[in-house]
Amino acid sequence: MRLWQLDRVSVSLFGDELDVGYHAYSILKTGRDYSGNFLPIHFQSLAEWRTPLYLYSVVPTVALFGVSPWGVKLPAAIFGILGVWVFYLFIRQITGKQGIALLCALVLALSPWHVQYSRAGFEVTQLLTLYIAGIYFFLRGLKNGKWLFPSAVFLALTPWAYSTAKLFLPLTFAALVLIWRRDLLKLPRKQLIIAALCFAIVAAPIAFSTVFGGGAQRFNYISIFSDPTMSPEIGFARLRDAKMRNPVAQVGITPTFVDRLFHNKATWLTTFVGQNYLRAFSTEFLFTQGDPNPRHSPNGIGELYKFEAVFLVLGLAYFLFSKVDKKIKIFVFFWILAAPIPAALTRDGGNHATRLFLLLPPLIFLVGYGVWSTYNSFLIRKCSLFVYSYSFVLILSVVFFQHLYWIHYPWDSERWWHAAFETAVKTAVFESPNYDKVIVSNAGEPAMIFFLGWSQFSPQRFHELYQPRGTGGLDLPRETLPNFGAISKLDKYYFGSPNVDLYTLGQVLPDKALYVATAKEVNVNLIQEPERLPKDLIMVKAVAYPSGEPAFFLLTKNTK
C-alpha cells in the first residue's frame, strides 16, 4: 500500500514536495541548498525555512530517480514501513503480548492517516518512526542502561525531522523524567551521563538554529500569536459590547474596564487554543471528515475508520483497568493529551493532520487494545460472532478506502496536488530553443519552484542568479517587459502574467515568446472549443488534468 504506484497516486508532486526535491538536487550537485547555504541546519526556501533531516534523506533517492515522485516520496514510504515495524516492537514492549503488538501493527498499516502520509513527500512518517523508536529504546534502557544511548539519539533527531517535535520533545522529556525518575536513578551514572551528552550533542545544533537562526520563522508565520485577525476581532467584540449598551456607539470609542476584562489577547488566545485542541479529538476530524485539505486526507473519510470509534472507547476503558504497568498508562495518556498541543498553537492546527500526526500511535494502540480485549471477552464465551463481524467490517472499510483512494482521489485532488505542472514545464523547456523568451504565468500558483524542480534547472546557475536575504526568501532578478511589468527571470525564462483576457493576450505578448497560460486566466476550454482561439495566437500545446479538464495552454503570437 505504501509503494504500489507511488509515482501515480498521489497524482503529482505539489509545490512543497518539489521544494524538497530541488533542495536535495542542489545538495547533490553543489553541497548547498538552492539558496546557496552550505550543508545547512535549516534549509532556506523561496518563502520559508525547512527542517533538514527529510531533505538530506531524499538526496540518495534524488540521485537515483531525479526530482520525481519516486525521488521525493520514496523516503517517506520507507519510513512509513519502518514505522509499522517499530510500532510493533513498542507495543510488544509495553504490553508483553505479541498478539496485541501484531494487531496494533496491522491497524496502523491499514490506517488511512498513516497510508496518506507514507505516500507523500512529508516529513512526518520520519518523525513518527524516530519518536516511537526513541520511546521504545528508553523503556528498554530502564532495565539495561546501554539502550538509553540509541534512545537519546532517536529522540534528539525528531526536531531535525519536523518542527512539531521542537515543542513536543521537551514535553516528552519532562514526562519521561517525572514518571520514571526513580528507575533512572537506579541506573549507572556513567550510562546516564553518556546518554545525556549524546542527546545534547545531537539536539544542540537544531536548538541553536531554531532560537537564533531561521528555524523559528516558520512558527512565527503560522503561530496564533502572530495571527493578524486577533486585534480586529478583539476590537469588534469590544465595539459590539459598547453598542449593546449604547446603540449609537462608533468605532474608536474607549472600551470600558469590563470590555477589556472579557475581550483581550489572553481571552482570545485561550479560546482559540482551546478550540484547536478540542477539535483534534472531534468525531468530525477523527471519523467523518478528516483534514479539509485534500493533500492531507481524501474527502469523505476521517483520519480513522468509522468503526474504530467503538473500539477506541472500549480500548480506553479496557486499558485503564488493565494490569499494564501504571507508569505505562500514565505515559500513554500523557501522549494522547500532549500530542495536540503544538498544533493547537497554530492558526489552522485543530484539524491539521500533518501537525497532529503524533496523535496517531496512541489512538491506534487503544483501537487495537479494544479489539484484542473484546475478542478475548467473546472468546471466553466461545462466541465466534465477534471475530466474523469484526473481520467483515474491517474488510469492508478497507475496501471502501482503497476504492476511494485509488479511483476517486486522483481526480478529486488533482488541483491540490498541482497536477499538469510537470507536463507544462517540460513542454516549455523542450520548446524553448524556438523562442527568445518563455514566460510562465503566475496567475495560479507561484510558478518558480515548479519550474526549478521539473526542469532540474542547474543549481550552480541558480546560485549565480539569486541572492538570499538574511531574513528569509530570495532577492530575485527582475526585468521589465512591456505589459507585464517588472517580473522575475531565470535566463530566458520569465515568471509573471499580463492580467488580460484571451482576446487581448495576442496584443501584449512579445514577439518570439512562448507563454504558459493557466486555464483560469484563459477562461475558455480550448481543448473542447479550439475554434475560439483568437487568430493572433497559436496554441503550441494544451495541457489537461488527469480528469481531462484544461490546466495550461502554451500560446505564442501569430506573426503571419
TrEMBL record:
TM region(s), chain numbering: 53-70, 76-91, 121-139, 160-180, 192-212, 304-322, 328-345, 357-375, 387-407
Primary localization class, coarse: membrane
One of the GO BP terms on file: lipopolysaccharide biosynthetic process
Molecular functions (GO terms): pentosyltransferase activity
A Gene Ontology term for the protein's cellular component: plasma membrane
Keyword annotations from UniProtKB, A to Z: Cell membrane, Glycosyltransferase, Membrane, Transferase, Transmembrane, Transmembrane helix
Residue ranges of every copy of the Glycosyltransferase RgtA/B/C/D-like domain listed in the record: 52-205
Bilayer topology term: Multi-pass membrane protein
Pfam families per the UniProt record, alphabetical: PMT_2 (PF13231)
Keyword Transferase carried by entry: yes
Record-linked InterPro entries: LipidA_mod_glycosyltrf_83, RgtA/B/C-like
Keyword Transmembrane belongs to the record: yes
UniProt feature coiled coil, ranges: none
Compartment annotation: Cell membrane
Cited PANTHER family: MANNOSYLTRANSFERASE YKCB-RELATED, MEMBRANE PROTEIN
Protein name stated in the entry: Glycosyltransferase RgtA/B/C/D-like domain-containing protein
Originating organism: Candidatus Blackburnbacteria bacterium RIFCSPHIGHO2_01_FULL_43_15b
